[in-house]
Amino acid sequence: MPATSSRLLRLLSLLQAHRDWSGADLADRLGVTPRTVRRDVDRLRELGYPVHASPGTGGGYRLGAGAALPPLLLDDEEAVAVAVVLRTAAGGGVEGIEETSVRALAKLEQVLPARLRRRVEAFTSFTVPVPGRRGGPTVGAAVLTELAFACRDRERVRFDYRDHAGREGRRTVEPHRLVFTERRWYLVAWDVDRRDWRTFRADRLTPRPPHGPRFEPRRPPAEDLAAYVARGVSTAAYAVRAVVLLHAPLEEAAARVTPATGTLEAVDEHRCLLRTGAPGPEAMVAHLAMLGFDFEIREPAGLRERLAPIAARLNRSFGVSPD
User: For 127-249, where are the alpha helices, taking DSSP H only?
Assistant: First the structure.
């Protein structure tokens, strides 16, 4: 590939990766002069890419939305990821985009090289969707897109929100990331009014634009946001919380404990700790009993006393006399 064409592809990739670039930063990344960057930007515009430029010391370049969709630049891994996600979306999960996903997938697979088509087909041929899970809450694609743009552009978002107790209110947040787990979308964001990190169910919020102003990003609440959300939805939201020692290897317990029902930590090769929550003591007993493992309640100290009457009632129902 000629050097100029290769450099244009690299420039386009950089513009697609981040919202704003200064001319100096682009020149440094590409190993060229700012003058060459300006010429390359002009070439991209001739190809239909709407590259906006702002003058001054704080100015730079931004890839905007145009009247028509120019070709997207995807590397092999990105193309496979997009195809897999489109196939998943075509089967449901994001409200209202099944048919659109099928059309987009058809266009993408038409231009995929044979080697990449085989990778996508292998993935979808050897994965099986879990039946009975399609009845969960869905989120409008427009809502997810709006939240994703706000995360990318670091803009405050206002939305109406209904919490797990059914209470409704208005929230103003600094959005950080969208997290998808157990067929639900969550927004991890800094709550401006409560001055703390919060996790919001995306299907329970209704954006109220206009959004803004822009904000300086904060240090996220955890490095592993998926684990952070899992802890929140499986433990923190419940009235009864527990730390339980399971007499089972971590791998075996993980097959029965989903991110929505608890988090696991290995103790040794034969035992692991479960952190979980439940609406009440009865639900906690049912949850732990259905795991099928021997267990010991470690925390909180008073939980065993709360569970004792339930254990006695179960013993009586099976004709077992107390000692």
Answer: 141-153, 225-231
